[in-house]
Amino acid sequence: MRISATVAAVSGALVLSALAAPFAQADGSGPSKADVFQAAEAARQAASGKTAFAGSTAADTGTPYALDVTFSGVKVNNGKPIVVGTTNKVTVPVTYTVTHAADVDLAAVDTWMDVEIYRGEYGDPVNGNILIGDDWPVCTAASATVDTCKGTIDIYPTEELTNADATSWKALGYVIDWNEVDPFSDEDIDWSQVGVAEQDALATTKLQRFSKLTVNASPEPVKKGKTITVTGKLSRANWDTNKYAGYSTQSVKLQFRKKGSSTYTTLKTIKTNTYGDLKTTVTASTDGYFRYSFAGTSTTPAVNATGDFVDVQ
Fold this sequence. Notes:
Blueprint: H1 33-47, E1 65-66, E2 69-76, E3 82-84, E4 90-100, E5 111-120, E6 128-131, E7 138-141, E8 146-155, H2 157-160, E9 168-177, E10 195-199, E11 204-209, E12 211-218, E13 227-238, E14 243-246, E15 251-258, E16 265-271, E17 277-283, E18 288-294, E19 303-304, E20 308-310
Parallel strand pairs: 1-10, 3-11
Antiparallel strand pairs: 2-4, 4-8, 5-6, 5-9, 7-8, 9-10, 9-11, 12-13, 13-14, 13-17, 15-16, 15-18, 18-19, 18-20
């Protein structure tokens, strides 16, 4: 099993609450996710000619050879933005095709393959972030050289996100064939025995802060021709505090649906105040439902309040 990890892992702040499947021991245990993530990064950085990422010493030798592998058709969350609240884990699907040489066995226990998403500068804990899945992807062989794969991105907002993460992300895929080299051994690694393939900019996705919108129309009931006051609040997830906070100075539509109708009509557009609050007035004319409607922004999804019924007498 794998757990989600942010690029904070690069600076050693990985979550260590689950075990990894690769190189499992006879007792069913295995290396921690920290070890798995760092070993994968070590191989990929060695292949790029950089200093190995995790635990490598000057005695480590050689350079990984290039695997004949390409990723295609990568789709994150079915092409839709990923919307995350303040506390609940969010799991989104990742699907793709892997085309590879016939001698690359994606099902081998010592072959690791995954697609991650990242923002900013990959591997930089200050200017970027990385999100991955709890489990290794599952692949089905379509032929000797083509596999169709399904994985996940698992997001833990309280551990992994800040408000800066509400932006566009890129997908990156990699395959590492360890060829029976033990990445967790205390022995020096001969990188020339390890095969690596990496492909960047496979797809893009957006991460958005979950939004909430309320409405209250009063008085109820009300006489025809009298004033109805409609209040509400637009709020969204704050990943810095793990609470919901008002979304200020945002345009929101006040809409009305006549009793017996299924269609809302926009009456006016107003803006939230500094605290995300909404307040306006209308004249009572007929029975129906009032709601506020927010069209969304690049960082925050659209949301409609549940209609509030007013009986006009």
